Amino acid sequence: MDDIFNLYKECRLCPRACGTDRFFAHGACGESARLSIETAVLHHGEEPCISGSNGSGTIFFTGCGLRCIFCQNMEISQKKISGAAYYTEDDLVDIMQKLADLGAANINFVTPDHYLAHIVYAVHTFRANGYTIPIVYNCSGWETVEHLKLAAQVADIFLIDCKFSLPEIAEFCLRTKNETYTHVIWTALEFLYEHVGNLQLDENGTAKRGVLVRHLVLPGMTENSLDIVNELFFRFGPEIYLSLMAQYTPSFLDLPENCTNEKWRKSLARCLTKDEYQSVVDLALELGFENVYLQELPKQDDMYIPNFASHKMFEKW
Question: How far is CA 122 from the centre of its chain?
């Protein structure tokens, strides 16, 4: 099992494949091989099937290989804040066990990709210690099949973002011309639906295994969202579980200094409108999706965004 940590040498855990030896430097994700966790909480803000009645045992890692310019968790995905601290793999097991003992519906790893070695070790130990609640791999969709195969050996549920279908928007929002997000996400989803399957719920309506796809509708970019809904329908059918999110906020927008696309700059500088979101919802309903989670537009910009600076380990939201 110790060999699993060799994943951090010449790291290629995300498709950026930076090749950094994270035992000695920080990778494209912004993290070293030291496990950095911002907080662990019983979180009631996920989809109802994930939160369950007691909350999802959510562990927020810092760093991210995708690095969207509008990240809703920018405070921890691309910037270190004072609450984050370093932990060992055995500390991670202890955190998981405490969340389970508090009655968590599952263990929910948020932005887990760059800490996959720690997760594999911790889940194996967690299971060996007799814990059976589901493991949620809550990820950006920026995943290689090679490492999804490894994640699928320890995770029961994949809560996966599908952000971009139009390559030009992906390029703009990811500040890169070198990676093809659209190819990566559809390849990842094809693998997951074939090997993990559609979401399955227990008798209480709580997720126990399978895939749930999330999509955040962006202001001024509804064409991208409509294309994604269409693509999901024709690739995977109307029975898939789809969460259409309206929680976009420009609070953490970090546009590149050389941004020349005035239209998209102005769009991302505002919140989503009701009509924009409704047009995407209408398409999903017209196509006949059977399992769609919808979200109210936020009453203020940061309504759905956690205040990480105020949270302590195991605090209930």
Answer: 19
Angle at 115 between CA 113 and CA 116, to 5 degrees: 65
Name the residue among 154, 153, 237 with its Cα closest to residue 189: 237
79 and 93 Cβ atoms separated by less than 8 Å: no
Report the SS3 class of residue 85: strand
**93 dihedral zone (left: phi>0; alpha: psi -120 to 50; beta):** alpha
Place of tokens 């099949």: 145
Q: Quick check: 16 and 28 in contact, CB under 8 A?
A: yes
Residue pair 37/58 in contact by the 8 Å Cβ criterion: no
* Position 1 pLDDT exceeds 70: no
> C-alpha angle with apex 63: 58 to 66, nearest 5 degrees?
105
Beta-strand relationship, 241-245 and 107-110: unpaired
Contact of 92 with 86, CB cutoff 8 Å: no
Q: Which residues pair with 137 in a beta bridge?
A: 109, 158
Write the CB contacts of 115 (distance below 8 Å, at least 6 apart in sequence). 31, 35, 61, 109
Q: Is the pLDDT of residue 309 over 70?
A: no
Q: Which residue has the higher pLDDT, 40 or 315?
A: 40
Q: Do the Cβ atoms of 226 and 280 come closer than 8 Å?
A: yes
Note the pTM of the prediction, 2 decimals.
0.93
| Residue 105, H or E segment | none
Helical ranges in the chain per DSSP H: 48-51, 74-77, 89-101, 116-128, 145-151, 167-174, 181-195, 222-236, 262-268, 274-287
Place of tokens 């928007």: 169
d(CA 316, CA 314): 6
